[in-house]
C-alpha cells in the first residue's frame, strides 16, 4: 500500500503543479481508497498543500520568478473579497450556504 500512496502523492503533486485541483483528488483518494475519515482527509490535504506550496514558493523566490506587482494586486483584491465574503455569509442563512457550497 505504501507504493500506491507514493504514486498517488506524486500524481496529485504533479497535477497540482499544473494548476489542476490536486487537493480534491487527494481527498477523494484518501476517503475512497484509504478509507480515511473525511475530516482527517481534509487535514492531511491541508498539510500536503502547505508543504508543496512552501517548496514551490522557495523555488520561485530563488529564481526571482515572482511578479510582485501582480502579487500585490491579487493580495489587495483577495483581501477585499474575503472581507466581503465574510460579511455576506453573516447575512445568509447557514442552511442556504450549505446548499451553495454543495452545488459548488
Describe this structure in words.
The protein is an all-alpha fold and 104 residues long. Helix content is 84%, strand content 0%. The chain is built from five helices and no strands. The protein has helices at 2-17, 22-33, 38-62, 68-91, 94-103. The longest helix is centred in the middle third of the chain and has 25 residues, at 38-62. The protein starts with a helix and ends with a helix. The mean pLDDT is 88.
From N to C, what is the helix and strand string? HHHHH
Proportion of beta-strand residues: under 5%
- Total strands: 0
Indicate the structural class: mainly alpha
Biggest beta sheet attributes: none
Write down the Rg: 17 Å
Name the average pLDDT. Answer: 88
N-end to C-end Cα span: 32 Å
Helix content: over 70%
**Shape descriptor:** flat
| Low-confidence regions | none
- SS element count, helices: 5
Summarize the structure.
The chain has 104 residues and is mostly helical. The chain has five helices and no strands.
Main attributes of the structure:
104 residues
Topology:
Layout: H1 2-17, H2 22-33, H3 38-62, H4 68-91, H5 94-103
Helix pairs in contact: 1-2, 2-3
Amino acid at each position: 500500500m505504501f507504493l500506491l500512496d507514493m504514486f498517488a502523492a506524486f500524481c496529485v503533486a504533479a497535477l497540482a503543479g499544473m494548476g489542476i485541483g490536486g487537493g480534491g483528488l487527494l481527498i477523494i483518494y484518501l476517503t475512497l481508497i484509504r478509507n480515511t475519515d473525511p475530516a482527517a482527509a481534509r487535514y492531511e490535504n491541508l498539510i500536503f498543500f502547505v508543504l508543496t506550496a512552501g517548496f514551490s514558493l522557495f523555488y520561485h523566490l530563488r529564481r526571482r520568478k515572482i511578479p510582485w506587482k501582480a502579487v500585490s494586486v491579487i493580495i489587495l483584491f483577495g483581501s477585499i473579497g474575503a472581507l466581503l465574503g465574510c460579511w455576506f455569509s453573516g447575512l445568509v442563512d447557514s442552511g442556504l450556504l450549505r446548499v451553495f457550497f454543495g452545488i459548488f
